[in-house]
Request: fold
Amino acid sequence: MGDSNGPTRQLPDVFKELQQSRLEQQINSKLSVKKTSERKKKKIETLSKNREYAYRNMWNEKNSTELFNFSVKKAAVVTVCICALVLTAVSKNYILATGEKQEEKIETAKIQYEANENAINLTQIVSQNASNISAKDYVHEEREIPYETVYIEDTSLQKDEKVVKQEGINGKEAVVAVKTYENGQFVGESILERTVMEEPVKSVVHIGTSEFLKTYQVHLGDTLYVTGDTILREKANASAKEICTIPKYLDVKLLELSGDWCKISYDANQGFVKTSALTSASFTPTIVEESRIQRILTKVEENMNVNEPSGLTLADFKKVLSNNQGDTNKIFENCAEAFYNAEQKYKINGIFLAAIGINESAWGTSNIAQTKNNLFGYGSYDRDPMEYSFTFESYEDGINTVAEALVKNYLHPAGTKIYDGQMASGKYYNGSTVSAVNTKYATDPEWGKKVYSYMEDLYNKLK
Reply:
């Protein structure tokens, strides 16, 4: 029987196919038995060899080098199988005669062929596995042990602020490991042994929680300012003992936080005030200048020392000596810088010096002031002031001369080191206040009060 599209198949070929099918069924049946005896195992091996032999003979009859063409139409294959079954029934004796004596009945089986849509590409698999090179490496090396970071909440820091209190340091360890590589790329390792050589040091980070510090952008130790006259107390409660009253705008140093209270230092005093009574330069920018002026004004009193600088800036001198009703000729306004420079050079209170000039010259309107550039009546005597008073080349020259004389003879005890490394004579020293200078500087007993009154007026123009 044959097909025009494939090789002609002879009857013996069909017989061999059936014989092969029978042998396969026998082997599969024998293999399913769990406890097979050694005799049966040998018989199965013999049957397997016969199957292999029959299979080879089936395809090597005439065209041993050709493969069976599986593209034969399914209808033709089915027809061949039916014919083979019929012939098998008729030729049973012939089949048994051509083969080895069989111990079991040969059962026929239907052979069905299906196309494999997911055929395995053996060439591709072999190629991929051949190129996949795996290697392992045994290593002994030193490695770093990463340090741990510890976070601690801190009420002394601004909220969310982070401060490293202790730097972290990595440790060291000796490691024995097996590293795995695929195609030269590291893919993993197995640690066999670890030995710590140096323990890591933890990193300690403090995280701030204070809303107050964040709002005013300050830290402990920074300067704060009281917003009004504030009572400094011994403890953080409203009924605690009063230490002193801090004048409005004055600066204080922040020491601690205690709930709604702050521990502060004010000059030589330490105590507690409410946080609501404080502000900062970043929160209230104008407070710094207001505090500076207030610091100056708190020292203004009748018994204040005038043998030290006032602390006023050049701008302050120009401000207080300008636009004064009595200074009709603007002599003091124009001499503001001269008074400031005298204070810097001779370390004398420049406002005190200006107040003497205002008192002695009636704001520069006196005859001696206008004709001799002498604002102080310096050198004059009561019996003839004009005759004995000094004449100066300029108002500035007179200001410097009087400042030097006061520092050297009236404001310091003998032997005190003064300007330019010189020593005070202390010839007329009676104290460093306005009233003390009055004793030997002027015969008018009210002179000191008059001078201080002018000083107060000038200082108040700073407000």
Remarks:
- Residues 38-59 form the longest helix (22 residues).
- The chain has a mean pLDDT of 83.
